[in-house]
Give the backbone structure.
Amino acid sequence: MALPKRRHSHQRKNKRRSHHALKVEGLSVCPQCKEPKYPHRICKNCGYYDDKQVIKGEED
């Protein structure tokens, strides 16, 4: 296994790790009940996806 000849600086290590942070997934608005929901997923409040009721939601 290869070993580094010299020690990497803190700055170089931190630059490499700058992309490791978790990103917040964007929210969209449900067209049926106007509640925030994750895109491309069934609305947990009303149960609609793509203008069709898929599951029975809390509003029913």
About this structure: Residues 16 and 22 are 15 Å apart (CA to CA). The chain has a mean pLDDT of 89. The radius of gyration is 22 Å.
